[in-house]
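INTERNAL AUDIT FORM
Audit reference: QA-55
Scope: verify that the stored structure record matches its stored sequence.
Auditor: D.O.
Record contents follow.
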Amino acid sequence: MASTEIDPGLERAIARSKIDPQDEPSVGWGWHGEFPAAFQAVGWLFTVMVFAYLIGNHDGMIENIFIIGTGLTIAILLIKYNIDSRKAKRR
């Protein structure tokens, strides 16, 4: 028969995260969060890839305007994320 005792490691994870497992069950698996460094790295990689689309055989400038706009939007969002995460660390 299954034991009704709670794993002590799970209790520590719940206490450390201060998140109720009823609200977010993933805290019970021992992991709850995000990978900010990987998020930043992949975001900047995508930004470079978007700007790489500028190299090619474009006849008009409309494609270039949309590519530059998309790349700048991604870059601005990444910079905003970086600033917001640094402000959160200071608090």
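Auditor finding: record pair retrieved intact. The mean pLDDT is 80.
Action required: none
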